[in-house]
Amino acid sequence: MHRHLLSAAAAAAITLAAPACGSKKDTPPETPPPATTTAAPAPETTAPPAETTAPPAETAAPAADVADAPPAEPAVDVVVWSASGDGAKATWYQVAGDEVTEVATRPEAALFDGTTLFALQTRWTRQNMMPCEALDDEGGEHAPSGAVDLPSLVARPLGSEAAEKVVVAAESAGGGFGDVDSNTISLEGSAGAVVVFEHVDTGYGCGAHGYDESGHGAFDVAAGAPVSRDGLRAAVSDLADKAREPIFAAAVKDECRSAEEPYAADDISLDGTSLRRTGDGVEVVYHFYVEPEAEWARNCEIGEDVGGPFRAETRLVAPTDAEQKALAKLGAEGVVGYSTVTLTGEARDAALTAFKDAATLAPPKPAPPAAPAVADGGGDDGGAAPAVADADASVVALIKDARKATAEKRYDDAIAAFSAAIEKDAKAARAWSGRGYAKLLAGKVDEADQDFDKALLLDNDDTFQAAVWFNKGLVAEKRGDKETARSHYETAKSKKPSKAVELRLKALGDEPSR
What we know:
By secondary structure, the protein is of the alpha+beta class. It is built from 14 helices and 15 strands. The strands form 2 sheets. Strands 1, 2, 3, 8, 9, 10, 11, 12, 13, 14 and 15 form an 11-stranded mixed β-sheet that branches. Strands 4-5-6-7 form a 4-stranded antiparallel β-sheet. A hairpin with a 5-residue loop joins strand 9 and strand 10 (210-220). The longest helix is centred in the N-terminal third of the chain and has 28 residues, at 41-68.
């Protein structure tokens, strides 16, 4: 409805003239001139008031425009975060039209799932690692060889009594035996309630089988469950085709690429997604994985990242206008997350208070564990494990040196050290399996297989057996015997499932019909 504002203005000035005292009745013709004379100035004196009232009428017009303008947009609460080194930083903004106001910051990622504000936090669980020799001596006493801190990623509610949700649980790190080099979880972005991440687990198992298991994943905090990648794979089938060429081109620069041999691939699959802020906004990056089928590249895994548009099947929601404005405040490109907080009243106040509260931050990563105590060989050591015999200690040292040489690709040195350990203790299963693995990497396939067979006779532990059977599968592949390789991998899987064995079975394809 339009309002019409009215202002008053003087249309005319009325002047009353009284007759002069002592005027003569016989001179009426003379009276009109004075009247005319006195009335003439009147319009001049009344004109200014009319002019002074005109401005109010002009100033009233803007008032009508203000009344016709739409009401101001309500402020929107938006929480965005960006990766910062090993951690992340979240910022709470209020967005009103084009005005973006910073309300508070938090030194870790945060998101809103539609009902609750959550902080994404890393928790650490310390696990003792036992020496591989403990598997050879069931029932014997062995001191831990060290300890590792294993990460979990959780969503902690802020300003609410909602339940905490585990996004990624800490892994067992090889069952607690052997060596673990690293175990990390990296945030790869979030959109609304969905958070995407990468989990990397690398190490050297007791079966002399090095492992490097990694992969992307997604978790829906609102649903409290992982996001399936099946729909995502179907949604980006066209991008998978486009990804082949850049992946193959990248392979030329890879150390496992032989310029003289043709390049081929068994399969290309989607491993996951991540979100990146670019100069134009936010982009979803699809992570593809390719495993070559060429014999020279059996152990070569090549990945490629391809940017693409948002798809409904990804369960990742494109940012709203308010979220885009808040994201623009981040400035630099990189991993990002965004969500709109729809809480009001006391619930909003409680969430904002907890967002600002340092007491709700994740506990820091614990300090590195102290080196395990070594018994001095005499007297009561207060419960510490008994001292290792000199002969056994020398075998352990040789195996550790040999594993280090294997990791550094000094295969001749590794084989020599493992052989020295076997001379001291012919029943050291880890020395046999370790030497076999070093020989396998050095191209001595037949000798490697003989060492693996010997190792299998010396240790029945499932973790150890799984690693050795996996290695025997690699041997069979090197010989071009896919059927035997598949059988060995299935045996390894039955002993202890792992991503590595799943990838090898996938690369071999379906079992041929009989």
